[in-house]
Fold:
Amino acid sequence: MNRYRVPIVVAVVLVFVAAGGILIFANQNAGGKDVTINLTVTGATSMSPDDPSAHHNDTVTINVTSDTDGDVHLHGYDLHFETKAGQVVSHTFKAVNTGRFEIEWESTSRHLGWFTVS
Amino acid sequence: MLATGILLHGFGQRYDLPASLFLYLFAAGGVVVISFVLVVLFAGDQVGAKAIQYPRRAVPSLLPIARSPWPRIVGGLIGVLGLLAIVVTGLFGLPDATKNPAEYLTWIYFWAATVILSGLVGNLWYLLNPWAAIYDAITRFVRLGPVWKLPNVGIWPAVVTYFLFACLELTTGMANRPWLVGTLALAYSAVTLAGMIYFGRDEWLEHCEAFTVLFGIVGRFSPVEAERDEHGRINAVYLRPWGVGLLQPGPTGWDRVLFVILMLSTLAFDGIEATAAWQDFTVTLEPTWLPMGAWGFFIVKTTGLVLLTGAFLLIFIAFMEMVIYFGNRPLDLKATVTAFALTLVPIALVYNAAHNYSYVMVQSQGLIPLLDDPLGKGWHLLPAVAAYRPSFALAQASTVWFAQIVLIVVGHVIAVYLSHLKAGEKFRSAQRALLSQYPMLVLMVMYTMTSLWILAQPITAGG
Structure:
């Protein structure tokens, strides 16, 4: 029994790791769709909706409307929306990076929301 | 509304997607099942000194390298240059943390990556320590001897320094100010060099210098072991399984126990303060801390860190009392607690790696474009890298989750195994050793579950 203990533990861990891998990678979202997200920033302090999301490999268009001139920064994708009061600013990009990326009002580092790509 | 702009991890943002519920349940269930398998398989193992003997293989080809002065010369040079870069760019670079190399070098390359790499390959701090390198360089030309004898303080000064460093990172909200990082690096350098000169190089490093103590513990987890003769000269280099170096006997004391507990609690707090639960808690306490202004939030967070550390310590001691009770042998609590505390190190290290995985893989790349203009003066030292944007190739959510559960489970297995061997050494019969391990197993499952729970929590803004 003694000589088989370590191989048994290694085998159990390997089975667990393999099952985890199958579980994780098989549950990935397909993505690949066109998604349009309209965001409204008010007073350089809040954003609606504040939790936009997309799937991996979606083609995302984000339209930002603000009542204040400024810069809305989407982290992770490093996109800047240079807003003019009342005008729509847009960026279209492919959601290649998964994660939760902060959206903030650049000049004050004010947190506006999260953009989630799953 | 919480104070915003206080960044996570000292500086920079986490992009991780929290692990989903099914993954959390899968990993948690796996931890319990594997723990059960380990206990069944290793029941009736050896006791006494034989229990902690581990396999190791001599690697003669590494001996000339270990004996050569060159690794320490090159490592010391890198360490000194890194320290200089932190001080200069911290003091004279841009105030924006994301555009200042001092922040990347301190919080990602040194604090996150060097700890992880040291656990994986060996104590890199032994080679990189810039203060040891400066001291050694000076003593080649000037004879320096200790002026005073260091009192018998154990490693309490290192515990205090480590706690203060953790506060800087986690509770002050000022870790993202490059000028402060540069100033503190300069001040800590002055104190460390003075301490080495007045109290002796090794005395100061081994008792007062928090990073030397930390990397000494991390290095014991690593697979490289150097054996020295009575003159301190390396006479053999071995490779060993990860973690088993933590079984080696060492000094005992509550200071050492608290240091290991701090390794666990500071990491846990780093994760907890990014959760919605913590945010709700601080919002509830707003009437208390808000009137205190900027100090209020610092006090709340520092109190939280102290309470969490105290809770971890008390829970650990309570479980150790149970271990001794089931082991049915009168043992010195302090020595036993110290010995078993080290078996928790694998859990701390793998959680560190899991927690910081994407931070090290993605955010670390933010330093590359800064090499073109490290001080933000409009220079173009390396125009080729100026437009570099971080790659997410190794940090897609599925890859991160997979790495996290593998790390957490492997660390848990190593910890349970080490604890079992340590019990075999401490208790007289295999049956008693096994009995004593049930409380320890419960504790380790609890710690691992806590790590998994934190990884599964949504990240919130503002800490």
User: Anything to note?
Assistant: The mean pLDDT of chain A is 90. Residues 1-30 of chain A form one domain. The helical segments of chain A are 2-26.
